Amino acid sequence: MIEIVFLIVQSVTLFASMPQIVKLFRLKQSDELSIFTWAIWLISQSVSLLYVLSINNIPLIAVNVAWVIFYVVMMILILKYKTSPQEATAESTVATG
């Protein structure tokens, strides 16, 4: 019973997190997001994935794989849309000048 509840909660949480990816695609800006924090979450989820692989629990493997994919996509988008200090200076110069 608790496994079913866990799977439901994890699925709902994953779907509730999807607007983060949508927002990054839409705004194309990620300066306020910490790559370090997302990396820690990815590492944590990867360890969890290794555990569920070791116990061969297919539903939990599926949920963990989905989370790992989510974190990888987030990190790629954060890095892609991170404004470099030179770009930020150039943009502020254009905006004010």
Given the structure, what is the number of helices?
Answer: 4
Number of strand elements: 0
Based on CA atoms alone, the radius of gyration comes out at 17 Å
Helical proportion, percent range: over 70%
Order of helices and strands: HHHH
Which strand-content bin applies to the residues?
Answer: under 5%
Global geometry: elongated
**Cα distance spanning the termini:** 63 Å
Walk me through this protein's architecture.
This protein is mostly helical and 97 residues long. It has a domain at 34-82. The protein has helices at residues 2-27, 35-55, 58-80, 85-96. It is elongated, with a radius of gyration of 17 Å. The termini are far apart. The model has no long low-confidence stretch (mean pLDDT 88).
Q: In a nutshell, what does this entry contain?
A:
This protein has 97 residues and is mostly helical. It has helices at residues 2-27, 35-55, 58-80, 85-96.
Which keywords apply here?
single chain
